Amino acid sequence: MDKRSVENLARRYITERRLSLVLGNSIMHYLKRRGVQVARPRLHGTEIPSLKLLPIRIKRLLKEEVFSPLIVTHPLFNQIKAEDVDLHHSICHTMTEESITHGDEIFNSGMTVESMIFITGGEATYEFLASREPPAQVGVGEWLCEAVLWSSMHHTGRLTVSSGSCELLKLNAARFHVVVTKCVVWFQLKRYARLFVKRASRDSTVPTRHISDIWGNFTTVKQLTVKAFGLEHDTKSRDRKISSLLVLFDSDEVLQQHVFGAWKRQVQWQ
Predict the structure, then answer these.
(1) DSSP the chain
(2) What is the model's pTM?
């Protein structure tokens, strides 16, 4: 539906419901400023009525293909996909998309957190309302509020859209808890949760009992994932093997380069 169609429907609604002139003008002004549907870079599946008629099997495959590439940028979800693909697919099925336009608020300090958020389009500004830290920009490939998956929390700052529109992918904590209860990696996830909360609580600069919305960058959560899934043992074992190989070939620089290249390709993060 284009901008003109949306505005025409809004005018019809205002007229039929006999809204006051002040309220009607406020609604139309907001819709025009918001640029409904025009500035949004991505179409959502829920906006295409015909997709609702698809068989459940195809709907599930659709969500898996659309959402999987967006969440495996996070080390934990990448590891889940590698070790329990059924759980990975179930997580994809629980996720929802949302578009927020420029200047609009995504959440504010004190609100109860319900979902982890992945930024899949646009950019948002996070303001630390409980501290003197400068605002932080959050963009594509980044995430917020992961702590809600492992502990109850409230937002510690305010997040607003800072450019055009912002595309969000949300993982509801309650639904996540349901799908992980009997998964293959249940014990690893429990270990990850303990490590996450302990580390986040220790690092938090927010003068409250709540973990910061934006705590947990790629490097940190990768370290936690490696430890929770016992991957550090595999890494050490591979390091010992490559060290032995390099000793064998220490007299041949060319062979060293070949061995190191093979080792690097094998151990790189998938």
Answers:
(1) --HHHHHHHHHHHHHHTT--HHHHHHHHHHHHHHTTTTS-----GGG-GGGGGS-HHHHHHHHHHHHHHHHTTSHHHHHHHHH-HHHHHHHHHH-EEEEEETT-EEE-TTPBP-EEEEEEEEEEEEE-TTS-PPPEEEETT-EE-GGGGTS--B--SEEEEEEEEEEEEEEEHHHHHHHHTT-TTHHHHHHHHHHHHHHHHHH--SSSSSPPTT---HHHHHHHHHHHTTHHHHHHHHHHHHHHHHHHTTT-HHHHHHHHHHHHHHHS--
(2) 0.73
Render each residue's pLDDT in the chain as its tens digit; 270 residues: 566 777 777 788 878 778 788 887 887 777 776 654 444 556 777 777 767 777 888 888 888 999 999 999 999 999 999 999 999 999 999 999 998 988 889 999 999 999 999 999 999 999 988 777 899 999 999 999 999 999 989 999 999 998 778 999 999 999 999 999 989 999 999 999 999 999 998 887 655 567 899 999 999 999 999 999 999 866 555 555 555 544 444 545 555 555 455 545 554 544
